[in-house]
Fold these 3 entries.
Entry 1:
Amino acid sequence: MKNRFATRAFALSFALAVGGGLSGCASTAANPKDPFEGFNRAMFAVNEGLDTVAFKPLAKGYDAIAPAPVKTGVGNFFGNIADVWTALNNLLQGKVGDAFSDVGRVLVNTTVGIAGLFDVATEMGLPKHQEDLGQTLAVWGVGDGPYFYWPIIGPRTTRDTFGWVVDIHADPVANLDDVSVRNSLLGLRFVDIRASLLPTDKVVEEAAFDKYNYVRDAYLQHRRSVIHDGNPPRELPED
């Protein structure tokens, strides 16, 4: 079965959540959007440990060794693949113009941009969008649900967790039949994304009195912003 690793990772995380006594964690939560804070902080610590011993060193090595044009090309290549799913989600959200623009980006960058290594479409006036199923479900009226911090995949609302499961099953890279090629590309994409986040590490460390709270609040604010295309409505205070 394709996407086996991603599905098993999610299933294991969910099993840990259920087995860990979420109701007990909920009683100590200070943020109403994060009722399972105890569990989430534990998973955050797990991810921090994995990042320290494995992910961050790999990202630093990649960032140091790979020339800037190579890193740009890698990011463009995977971004071009993601534009296909973005186009579909824009269409499902009723943003037909953006969907056609995304299709145009894929056609231009795949051909003129040599398999997406060069982002020619942006220079031609076809801006890049970022849409996923979690955003589409939000536009359809599905609520956030509780916030979770999962091992490996990081922060997600309940809605975004289920959206992510569908996103990964629709991912062309994760659906390649050649296992070695698929795993190599998935690994390269993961390391490339982690390397792109290295500049933010110091900012987070210096700005955050409580790193967990900082990451959670930043994630929720970001998702609220992208769901409303950068213009979120005023959020009413909780009762």
Note: The two ends are 46 Å apart (CA to CA).
Entry 2:
Amino acid sequence: MEKLKFGFYWAASCGGCEIAVLDLDEKILDVLEIAEVVFWPVAMDIKYKDVEAMPDGHMDVCFFNGAVRTEEQEYMAKLMRRKAKTLIAFGSCAHTGGIPGLANVADAKEIFERAYLKSPSTVNPSNVVPEVKVEMKEGTLTLPEFYDTVKALDQVVDVDYYVPGCPPPTGLINEAIQAIAEGRLPPKGSVLAPLKSVCDECPRVREEKKITEIRRIIDFEPDPEKCLLDQGIVCMGPATRGGCEARCLNANMACTGCGGPCPEAIEQGSAMISALSTVLGLAAEREEGFDPDGLMQQLKDPIGTFYKYGLPKAIINRRVIEK
């Protein structure tokens, strides 16, 4: 039987999704039994011209990880869409924009000023910042345009499937590959993860919520048996799709939401804000003089808490840029 042709591409992300593929360990040998990797820039020497020369639809599946932050990444997203029969948004950054998407609170100019001119560790007396084109005596040097707005993959091209996570858990990766190999993929547009939330996978004991203060994991050692939300730690588990087996919670750390929104949720951040508001509303009914607004003031970073991985896919997905 002819092997499937797989491709992997890394856009605006940390590279963890590339390592997650290797985390399959010996199961990667099972992948190589059914598939030939024809495109994987991080692991093989391949040029733009090599991919451009491939017939359209040459790859059976391309796993595209990373958000779209630059002109080059947009070009590659569109190229991969043409060259792959099935395009999978692989990991949080491709799925919902990921941590790079938090940059949507600024624009390219502000980011460059901070990174190259104003950070405490920067020494740049000539105030040099990256330019798209620079003329040198040796010739013209170019860099891809750095966009103001970070986008998830499906905000740039049509996406067939999504594998969530930061990085995707090996169980989800293996299941996705098996579904591809056996021809049992669900309808186009599906997220290849369970329908339940992280809370449904979490073994911690949940009680009636009695939050009187919002606390941070760095301030105390939480009870490892008790729901973190019950202990005043904002845990994104109620608003986050499962499939990770609650691994962060099993390590006594709160869920930060990398699995993306639960099915049917309009967006992840507002779903969690709604859940937390309900909890605070119940507390206000029980506790005389309880001030929910004052409690919310204890939350240090609302955007980073509720939209850590999903700002580009939020209803309000960036700060307004005044030109």
Note: Residues 268-286 form the longest helix (19 residues).
Entry 3:
Amino acid sequence: MKSNSSSSSSSSASANLNPNSNITLNHGAGGRQMQKFINKIIVDKLKNGILERLDDCAVLALENKKRIAMTTDSYVVSPIFFDGGDIGKLAVCGTVNDLSTSGAKPLALSLAFILEEGISLDTIEKIVSSIATTALEAGIKIVTGDTKVVERGKCDQIYINTCGIGLIDDDIHISSYNAKKDDLVFITGPIGNHEIAMLKARKLLDFNFSTISDVAPLNTKVQTLLNKTKKINVIKDPTRGGLASALNEIAEHSNCEIYLFENQIPVDLDVQAVCEIVGLDPLYLANEGKLIIIADPSAKDAIYEIFKDAKHIGHIKNLHHDIIKNTNNKKCGVYLETTSAGIRKIGVLETTQLPRIC
């Protein structure tokens, strides 16, 4: 169960759950309100020792002591076709990338459609063809599925739900809880392209820019990396809530301080320009083809070899395993070393920047 511009300066009181209130778009944005909703409404009632870890996929031990990874996701992106991809490609990539955050080798995928009455068969065929092409690229099989049709107006053309399973080798131990002091923090390429591509696809700006979505399956590269080094401690995909929210989740899970170098965080010029015009923060923009990798310094060369656009953007400075979680004096968090030599704390996303991006 995944919880991943609003800046961190907004009052956290707005994120408090009122049992008499209703769901808003902020509850699905990947930020603080979503985290509180998932923890208070869902996890507290269903916790079982696995669910409450809230990694991007669950790791399950089998009777033979082998481990499998399992993840599920739903895709409601609008529009369903955009520069760089479509809802079908997004569904496969999102699922295999979540499996890869545990170091798992994706094995099988379920695929369920909710279709709106009136959607054209040609549209569905294009989406299924895209799914087939992406699954082949990722090396994963679609093995089961389901189709439901709802009345016109009850769904926005098509929604997709997936469930993926993968196998984890015995010597792989990757989790958002495993960051270690002096580990290096990497991002595998420029951030924010997917969310800006969705803004472009919705024609919300009246000028041209070239940004396309970065949506891509990354599992093959992750497996190649793990064949070269086992010194990888954390992998996470910074989707909803972006780089900042994903790193805050890692900092909370690992009880650590993460320090970032502002001048090392890669942002394409078009993305930076759009952010400056409309007031968005690239740190909170969604990505669908990038990974955060936290690793021992000895893994640096291997990461650069496999992920050609990877950048070293920070490090793990301190661990605080002696501090009880969820207390006010907890020091864990994400800190940005700015280009002006200052330090500022980076919080999680407070309110949605652009809804329905995945």
Note: DSSP finds eight helices and 14 strands in the chain.
